[in-house]
Specification:
Bound molecules: flavin-adenine dinucleotide
Structural class: alpha+beta
Largest sheet: 4 strands, mixed
Helix content: 40-55%
Strand order of the largest sheet: 1-4-5-8
Strand content: 5-15%
Order of helices and strands: HHHHHHEEEEEEEEHEEHHHHHH
Length: about 425
């Protein structure tokens, strides 16, 4: 029997250190982020990143030969639960999305030259990157419909298209772009990935799209979601990542473990909101007692605890499955946690905000910001509907429609079969009686 829910003491020490570090050094950044620019943010990060490196926790998502720790998904999941408590934490640990996913795919599919030019500086924190797939004109939930084209030109390509929500695109040094290279191929072989320097002629950074998370105009800061026009960008053959047509294959490698990290980060956010909910319930006097005395609030606390526990166990189990059997074996588990985790995040933050009333709705508490953040979880990383559809399809493969459309559990038919099965015994009983 190998089931085990314990954490190795040495690793628990790391987690304990991370909890203290993130709370003391990172959470304060949130309160001044609107007053500082990217250069000041980078200055704040520099000594923090050094401390993380000294502790041996830098870029932990990567294998040891690339300077990571080779921790595997369960440990990374536990780390991400702590990093999720603040949007500023992952960058201090060298595992900021999309840099983390991009470093994984360049490590996987990059040539030695691409690794030298892009991967190692990215890992050292000298470069920033972005992942440019979603387009305003086509559904991000079905990237086989992408319109951005990379047309062969001599031994290179010419890239033309329109993207948005390229996170960190306005501070990136290079962009990993998904573009169609052969529109006549099978849907999942149509697109390829390219590494595009942001200063290449024809890369037009239009804006950071104001959104629920950052409703005001906001440009050139970590966490911006950038609109980009690729206007006849000339790329050499060295820009292609992997083989032509490998775009979806490479993206898949990035997505499955990435979802474990996201779900654990969402649990970190949910836990933070849950702590605020519990604290509030202990002191807020309402008619007839404190909030903690009201059954509705007790239900919120109990239901939130149960949902978070369920999501946590599901996510860590999916992580264990990836570590034990590989990403493909865990695809359905990862789809399950994607939509379940997104709902848990939303529900817990919503209850905590409700318990704080006007204070929760105000910017004097982080809850309104967490609420806006939580909303995107339900459609990014594959819309919840798409994951549910995929889960249902996979589950239904194990079932068959009954002959004559009579349900397998139809009681009259089963009763008839039972009478036949036990006929001799029933006769005996009748005679004995
Ligand atoms: C904060 C944030 C960061 C992001 N970062 C990046 C990034 O770095 N790089 C990048 O390329 N993209 C990024 N995105 C974009 C994101 O991946 C897309 O928004 C997402 O894939 C959904 O695509 P869409 O917005 O085009 O919605 P659509 O694909 O148009 O879907 C809209 C809605 O249609 C419904 N729907 C879709 N398919 C189905 C179906 N099969 N069955 C039933 N209903 C369905 C769902 O309700 C869905 O929400 C980011 C988005 C956000 C909000």
């Amino acid at each position: 029997m190998a089931w085990d829910f314990s954490t190795e003491p040495e690793f628990e020490e790391h987690l304990e250190w991370m909890r203290g570090f993130v709370r003391a050094e990172i959470w304060p950044i949130e309160t001044i982020d609107s007053e500082i620019g990217q250069a000041e943010l980078d200055r704040i990060y520099a000594p923090l990143q050094e401390r993380v490196k000294e502790r041996g926790l830098w870029a932990a998502h990567l294998p040891p030969e690339l300077g990571g720790q080779g921790f595997g998904q369960v440990k990374l999941g536990l780390m991400n639960e702590i990093l999720g408590t603040s949007i500023y934490a992952p960058n201090a640990f060298g595992c900021q999305a999309p840099d983390s996913g991009n470093s994984e795919i360049i490590a996987l599919a990059g040539t030695p030259e691409q690794k030298e030019r892009w991967l190692y500086p990215l890992l050292a924190g000298e470069l920033k990157s972005a992942f440019s797939m979603t387009e305003p004109e086509t559904p991000g939930s079905d990237p086989t419909q992408l319109r951005t084209r990379a047309v062969r030109d001599g031994d290179g390509y010419v890239l033309t298209g329109h993207k948005w929500y390229t996170s960190n695109g306005s501070i990136a040094d290079f962009l990993v772009v998904m573009a169609v290279t052969d529109a006549d191929e099978k849907p999942h072989r149509r697109a390829s990935m390219f590494i595009v320097p942001v200063d290449a002629p024809g890369v037009n950074i239009v804006r950071d799209v104001p959104n629920m998370e950052h409703p005001g105009q906001h440009f050139g800061m970590l966490g911006g979601h950038t609109e980009i026009l690729y206007e006849g960008v000339r790329l050499g053959p060295d820009a292609l990542l992997g083989e032509e047509g490998d775009g979806f294959l490479i993206a898949q490698h990035r997505l499955v473990p990435g979802r474990i990290h996201h779900c654990m980060r969402w649990l970190g956010v949910a836990r933070r909101a849950f702590d605020m909910l519990c604290e509030r319930s202990l002191y807020r006097p309402v008619r007839g007692g404190l909030l903690r005395d009201k059954q509705t609030v007790q239900n919120w606390i109990a239901d939130s605890a149960a949902q978070m526990q369920a999501a946590r166990l599901m996510t860590l189990h999916a992580a264990w499955k990836i570590d034990t059997y590989g990403s493909s074996a865990a695809r359905m588990d990862v789809s399950l946690i994607k939509f379940f985790g997104a709902q848990v995040l939303h529900d817990v933050v919503d209850r905590a905000l409700q318990a704080h009333g006007g204070l929760g709705y105000s910017t004097d508490m982080p809850l309104e910001q967490l609420y806006r953040y939580a909303r995107h979880a339900r459609f990014v990383d594959g819309a919840d509907e798409v994951h549910r559809e995929s889960v249902a399809r996979q589950i239904l493969k194990a079932y068959e429609a009954p002959e004559d459309e009579i349900p397998t559990e139809y009681v009259p038919a089963r009763r008839e079969a039972a009478r036949l099965k036990f006929a001799s015994l029933l006769d005996t009983v009748a005679v004995d009686g």
